[in-house]
Amino acid sequence: MKKKLIYLTTNQQKVEEANEFFSKQYGFNIEIVNPNFEILEIQAKTCSEVVAFSAKYAADKLGCTVLKSDTGLYIEALGGLPGPYNAYFDKQIGIEKFLELLKNEKNRKARLEHCFAYCEPNSEPIVFSGGGTGKIAFEPKGVRGRWHDKFYIPEGESKTLSELREEDYEYESTFWGDAKDQFAKWYKENVIERNNIEN
User: Fold this and answer.
1) Cα–Cα distance measured from residue 194 to residue 147, given in angstroms and rounded to the nearest whole number
2) What residues act catalytically?
3) Chain-wide mean pLDDT for the chain?
4) Where does residue 109 fall: left (phi above 0), alpha (psi -120 to 50 degrees), or beta otherwise?
């Protein structure tokens, strides 16, 4: 029997992009669901720890296989903050106040972490991690994406992730690292093909 895989996300842009990516690049589809319950997140230093816990919590609660993603932004001048607490910082102070913290800071170096966690019910999660390096802009630019997309500039670029996404989201996605590809290759080889052999 084919295992159903649910990707839990509240981000509509993620929904559209994930649907196209997995179908076009790897030839499989996943069901994407906006969860109707709060997925618990632990306090941790890395996104991989947070997403692993969340995926296991959701898989056990729903009784089905789930995929969960998370992103962290680590700013050198702020000692690694906001790290995995992106959503909290956005909700509490927003873009303008956040960038105010860095207005006189010359060190704009930052690192983006992007993780996917796959988990079956009553099992341990498998985490795929990627990311990239860049810098923080002095002011937000662009309209697409989440808050940090509007002020994070990938290494080698002069535009924010948001601006790049407006021009070509497939090109922009390369700056998030290869976690999505890592997962897709693993899932195709270890779940889809294995399931085909068994059936």
Assistant:
1) 39
2) 70
3) 88
4) beta
- Two structure tokens written together for 147: 């808050």
Q: How far is CA 38 from CA 58, 179, 199, in A?
A: 9, 24, 36
**If you compute the radius of gyration of the chain from its CA atoms, what whole number of angstroms results?**
17
The pLDDT value given to residue 37: 66
What the block records as the tokens of 37 is 């319950």
Instruction: Please give the full DSSP string across 90-140, using - where no structure is assigned.
Output: HHHTHHHHHHHTTTT-S--EEEEEEEEEEE-TTS--EEEEEEEEEEE-SS-
- 31 vs 50, which has greater pLDDT? 50
Question: Quick one: the chain helix, strand, coil %, rounded to 5?
Answer: 45, 25, 35
Residue that the structure tokens 């941790």 belong to: 44
Q: Per mean pLDDT, which of 18-27, 37-46, 109-118 is the most reliable?
A: 109-118
